[in-house]
Write a structure and sequence with these properties.
Elements: E1 7-11, H1 15-26, E2 31-35, H2 41-52, H3 55-58, E3 64-67, E4 78-81, H4 97-114, E5 119-122, H5 127-138, E6 145-147, H6 150-165, E7 172-173, E8 176-177, E9 185-186, E10 192-193, E11 196-197, H7 204-215, H8 217-225, H9 232-246, E12 251-260, E13 266-277, E14 280-284, H10 291-309
Parallel strand pairs: 1-2, 1-4, 2-3, 4-5, 5-6
Antiparallel strand pairs: 7-10, 8-9, 10-11, 12-13, 13-14
Length: about 325
């Protein structure tokens, strides 16, 4: 049988969705379908066509199609969900929960109907609770429903550390644990530059400032943009996750994963280090935590559980 290109559908053609579609196509990961609600069909088709017309210049053979019909997403290998509302200055991600939970449910029904074997990656905020909502609604196994927070949060941390040390971002590694909120837990003990622990390179007070900036990294961009939230780094993060799955790379990266006892948590989606490969989340990696790290993680878990308690009833 002829080998076919992979198919990636991106639901929501706003800032994050459109940017993800472009980045995924530029990496030639497969053919991309960009979907939004019927009211947005014109702009969605327009963005997709504009991106498609960039492919000859870029030298990539990925198609990009804009649509408002789920028929066009049929048999996707990976579906990325970015549909929903974004926060504005003065709002927290948690303020989006009621509206976006409804959107997650309706989107998931269609994704399951048309792409029953897909891997779903959820970006929509509040991301931990929205990934949980999609998991429950889909009935998919836990490895096939994955949320995005840690690649982005870690990328922000790595950016700030590289700036501080004036070294390549490539050589800085880090791990951010916990919910995608201001209580997230950047794990300094597991962070390094060129393999050298950060604690040997940066003074504790500066590390604390970098941690604080990372925690509030989303809010910093919201404040600067004035009318929406970050999209370039989020799209790059989603693209890395799509690539890890489609190329079965078995990347060790933090994702929002379903926990059944790991880190002492049950029935919860939370940001943790995972192995992401051809079967989605192939493993949750459990790190040893100090008492202080555990306390920080517990605080973050409590914040996620508070948001989950605000999820609309079935
Ligand atoms: N987890 C993370 O790290 C990040 C999460 N986000 C979240 O991603 C979401 C999207 O952000 P942006 O793209 O900037 O927002 P945006 O407002 O630019 O785009 C959202 C799009 O979703 C569409 N949409 C709404 N309901 C829909 C439905 N039922 N079906 C299909 N499409 C629908 C809208 O028409 C709009 O085009 C927000 O909730 C934001 O908070 C954004 C950045 C990072
Ligand atoms: O801050 C927001 O609302 C969007 C987001 O999750 C991020 O950029 O980390």
């Amino acid at each position: 049988m002829a080998i076919k290109r992979r198919k990636i559908s991106v639901i929501g053609s706003g800032f994050t969705g459109a940017t993800t579609a472009l980045m995924v196509a530029q990496k030639e990961l497969g053919d991309v379908v960009l979907l939004d609600i019927p009211n947005m069909e014109g702009p969605t088709k327009g963005k997709a066509l504009d991106m498609l017309e960039s492919t000859p210049v870029q030298g990539v053979d990925s198609t990009i199609t804009g649509t408002s019909s789920y028929e066009d997403t049929k048999d996707s290998d990976v579906v990325v969900i970015t549909a929903g509302i974004a926060r504005k200055p003065g709002m927290s991600r948690d303020d989006l929960v009621a509206t976006n939970a409804k959107i997650m449910k309706s989107v998931t029904k269609e994704v399951v109907k048309y792409s029953p074997n897909s891997y779903i990656i959820v970006l929509t905020n509040p991301a931990d609770a929205m990934t949980y909502t999609v998991y429950k609604e889909s009935g998919f196994p836990k490895n096939r429903v994955i949320g995005q927070s840690g690649v982005l949060d870690t990328a922000r941390f790595r950016t700030f550390v590289a700036q501080e040390l004036n070294v390549s971002v490539e050589d800085v590694t880090g791990f951010v644990l916990g919910g995608h909120g201001d209580d997230m837990v950047p794990l300094i003990r597991y962070s390094a530059a060129g393999g050298v622990p950060l604690t040997k390179l940066i003074a504790p007070e500066r590390i604390e400032e970098i941690v604080e900036r990372t925690r509030k990294g989303g809010g910093e961009i919201v404040g600067l943009l004035g009318n929406g939230s970050a999209y370039y780094a989020p799209a790059a993060s989603l693209t890395q996750m799509v690539e890890a799955i489609l190329k079965d790379k078995k990347r060790i990266i933090p994702t929002i994963a379903y926990l059944e006892g790991e880190y002492g948590q049950h029935d919860l989606y939370l940001g943790v280090p995972t192995i992401l490969g051809g079967d989605g989340i192939e493993k949750v990696i459990e790190l040893d935590l100090t008492e202080e790290e555990k306390a920080q993680l517990d605080k973050s878990v409590q914040s996620v559980r508070n948001v989950m308690a605000a999820l609309p009833a079935e």
